[in-house]
Every structure is written in C-alpha cells, then in structure tokens.
Design goal:
GO biological process, one term: protein transport
CATH architecture of the largest domain: Sandwich
Largest sheet: 5 strands, antiparallel
Order of helices and strands: EEEEEEEEEEEEEEEEEEE
Radius of gyration: 27 Å
Protein name: Arrestin domain-containing protein 3-like
Organism: Mastacembelus armatus (zig-zag eel)
Domain Arrestin C-terminal-like: 170-278
Family: Belongs to the arrestin family.
Low-confidence stretches: none
Number of domains: 2
Number of helices: 0
CATH topology of the largest domain: Immunoglobulin-like
Mean pLDDT: 92
C-alpha cells in the first residue's frame, strides 16, 4: 500500500478541547507514503451540519422521517496544480501539511449527538491520485456556541400558576403561583424559585421542584419528543387549610450541555416543573 497513514490532527485551545464562534483552529494533515507518490490534490473541508432521522409505525406500515440542515462548508486547497501536469510529487516518508481554520463568527448550534439527531462540526481531508480511489480522513471537533443574550424574554421575570381541585382521598382546592427572576441561566448559576401555595384542602401537600431536559426533533412536518429528568427536590409539607410562601434555590449543574435554540430541526431546552405530592 503506497499510502501508509493519512490523518487529521488539531491543537486544543483549552482544557476541555472545545471551540466557539470566531475561534481559530490550527492543525495538520499527516500523510505517510511508502514510496515517491504523485498527488493530484489534497483538500481540507470544514463543515457544520445537522441531521435527524427516526422511524414510526402505523399499523403494518413504517415511515422514516428525516431532515438535514447545513451551516457552513469551507474548503482549503492544501495541494493543487503545483506542477504543469496538475500533480505534486512527494517523497517517501512522513509529510505534515499545516492548516488554519477560523470558525464563522455567527450564530451556530453547538455540537450534539443522540440516537435520533446530531449536530456535527468536523474536518474532512481528501487526497486524490490519478486512477486511484480518493483517500479520505476525518476529525470531529466540539463546538460550543456562545450564549445568545438576544433571545426575547431571556432576562425577563417569569411567572406561572396552577389551580387544582382535590377529589380523590380528600376535598378542596390547591393553588400555586411560581416566580423566578429570569428565564435564562448559565451552568453553575443559582436558580431562585418563589412559590406561593394556598392549600385549601383536607390533605397536607409537599411541593416538589423538577428540572428536566426537553429535546424536540423536526422533520417533514412531524415532531419527535424526548424528556429526561435532571434533578428533583422537595420542601416541607404544607398543612391543610394554610398558605405559605416557599423559597427554593436550585444550582444549575455545571456539566449540562448548553441549550440549542438556533437549529431548525433540533431543539434542546431545560424546563422547570413545580408540582406537589400528598
């Protein structure tokens, strides 16, 4: 085999090996050949794209829903038409071809992967030789989008309410009013929740606070939904025929991936649910 090794490497710029909008990635394409070799072209392609695909069954029929979305595709010609015959000759041994790529400084969704959909940022290298199959190599890099502070309502106070009549194992009504200072939070930040609960029932109720992840996938006019509970906390019970104001502080886990709100086919968000048990 003439080409013994063909790969892509790049340098990390932080301890997590992540990149964001406007960052420059420096790397190299490594080619090792067993003898002098003529190369027509060596191209590096940086791409960012999303894809979803899932299957649903209706009786005996199966239907596959899928969709793609592309964000960028940038080519760098590392070797091209260096000689009159359109080829470049490289000697036997190991060769390193450095490259530099600046991630577009615009709104892009973060890297994401699940069984239904994925958002991929990667490099692909293609080495072409006359009358030979194109040799390919790839390397993914983890892109984390900068926080988008322009989302409407992100810093606005939030409010929700719920009233429920008790009919099983008791009677009366329970009403809850929930307040938070804003809608958007970062990893590690404290989320303060103020709950005003009026228990006009014959049962004690124990408020509970649930932070959960919600993923939505969209294709061909259909949606697939997936939720996952991240954490759940409770407070002391509220006695029958009493009203209380409860303040609860939840720390957003530092290892949570960022929300994805800027992709047309994948949406990942975090929600707070306030409920109670008896």
């Amino acid at each position: 085999m003439t080409i013994k090794h063909f790969s892509i490497e790049y340098d990390a710029i932080n301890s997590k090996n992540t990149f964001t909008n406007g960052d420059t990635i420096n790397g190299r394409i490594i080619v090792e050949v067993s003898k002098q070799t003529r190369i027509q072209s060596l191209v590096l392609i940086a791409t960012g794209k999303a894809r979803v695909c899932w299957q649903e069954q209706y009786g005996d029929n199966h239907h596959v829903y899928w969709a793609d979305e592309k964000y960028y595709s940038v080519q760098h010609h590392i070797l091209r038409e260096a000689r009159q015959d359109g080829t470049e000759v490289i000697a036997k041994g190991r060769h390193i071809f450095p490259f530099s790529f600046k991630i577009p400084d615009r709104k892009l969704p973060s890297s994401f992967k699940s069984s239904v959909g994925k958002i991929v940022h990667k490099f692909r290298a293609e080495l072409k030789r006359s009358l030979k199959l194109t040799k390919k190599a790839k390397a993914h890099f983890t892109f984390v989008s900068k926080a988008d502070m322009d989302i409407p309502g992100l810093m606005d106070p939030q409010y929700g309410c719920k009233d429920k009549a008790i009919k099983l194992f008791g009677s009366g009504t329970i009403s809850m009013d929930v307040y938070t200072k804003k809608m958007g939070y970062e990893q590690g930040e404290a989320l303060q929740i103020i709950l005003k609960i009026s228990n006009h029932s014959t049962r004690s109720v124990k408020p509970k606070f649930i932070l959960y992840e919600k993923r939505s996938f969209f294709a061909q006019g259909h949606r697939k939904l997936w939720t996952n509970e991240i954490l759940k906390q409770k407070t002391e019970a509220v006695a029958p025929s009493t009203s209380e104001t409860v303040t609860k502080v939840i720390t957003i886990p530092r290892d949570l991936p960022p929300s994805i709100l800027n992709c047309a086919i994948i949406k990942m968000e975090y929600r707070l649910k306030v409920n109670y048990t008896m």
